[in-house]
Amino acid sequence: MPPGTALGTALGPGVDPGQSPARLPDLSGLRPRHPARRALIGALALAGLWAALTGGAAESWVMGAPAVLLGAALILLHPAAPRWRLSLFGALRFAAWFALQSVRGATDVARRALARRLPLAPGCRMFRTALPEGAPRLLFANAITLLPGTLTAEIEGDRLVIHMLDTGADLDGDLAALERRVAALFALPVPGAAATGAAT
Amino acid sequence: MLLDLLALALIAVGAFFFVAGTIGLLRFPDTLCRLHALTKADGLGLGLTCLGVALLAGTAGEVVRIVLIWFFVATSSAVCGHLIARHVRRAANAGGR
Fold first, then answer.
1. Is residue A183 part of a domain?
2. From the list A103, A110, A163, which residue is nearest B20 (CB)?
């Protein structure tokens, strides 16, 4: 069900081009929704949040309704971000893996912090990602921060500066695996996604 | 009863990670290493604490609020960590001539 993810033109091998032909690469994301629809969806989401926060008390809408309308109006002032197809199966798998990595990352750093002599060999490394700009790349950068021993210090286009607690670890292997998972989440087939970003 | 114990265990483990993160914050040699301790250990500590508290919550509304708190704190911690790291690197580059 998840499209085979073929990543890593810039990253070397490990490519598995088994994508379903039904959804081939529209790598710039889907077209943005009509502004009115965006505002409506935003208003519904905000109203849902307000209802959850206030327990649905009727009198709270005196404050809530204007705030929801204001929030929906603000959405119109923002340029539309490109949308991405999310693969449901990919999202579930990613969430489970994400939780596990977060436990591993925290355990690793706790172990280092509590060790008698600090087992650190810190330093920075560069990594070039093939993921397209926007949500996929941001999620990638933030997930790196949760992985054991790595932290995204800077994003410069498709180049990420990664700070490592132990520069002896296998950075490229770990990050290529993460990149494939992010691509699966966004249902990106991604061979050569780097070429699609406006800025290269 | 069993649920209470489970919640208590989750909150205790969460507190342990907060303590470990703080020890890392104090012991690690530079800002970037300290950020590792904060973003990772505290992030898991928060997640476990929220999970434990959610188990004790009485209503669905409370659970939603706890999930929202977790989501916004986790997001802002990731973004803050990234901003601090970027500033540290730029300041080092500027200072290093």
1. yes
2. A110
Q: What is the pLDDT of residues A42-58, one digit of tens each?
A: 899 999 888 888 877 88
CB contact under 8 A, B21 and A163: no
Residue B7: pLDDT band with limits 50, 70, 90: very high
Sign of the torsion formed by the C-alpha atoms of A158, B73, B26 and A166: negative
Q: Which of A11, A46, A77 is the last residue of a domain?
A: A77
Order the strands of the A123-128 sheet from edge to edge.
Answer: A123-128, A159-164, A150-156
Note whether residue A108 is domain-resident: yes
Nearest chain B Cα to A118, which residue? B28
- The reply to whether A142 and A94 lie within a common domain is yes
The helix-helix angle for B2-27 and B43-56 (nearest 10°) equals 160
Q: Is the ipTM of this complex over 0.90?
A: no
Smallest CA–CA distance from B40 into chain A, residue:
A106
User: Closest to B64 (Cβ–Cβ): which among A52, A145, A148?
Assistant: A52
Are A120 and A178 found together in one domain?
Answer: yes
Domain of A40? 35-77
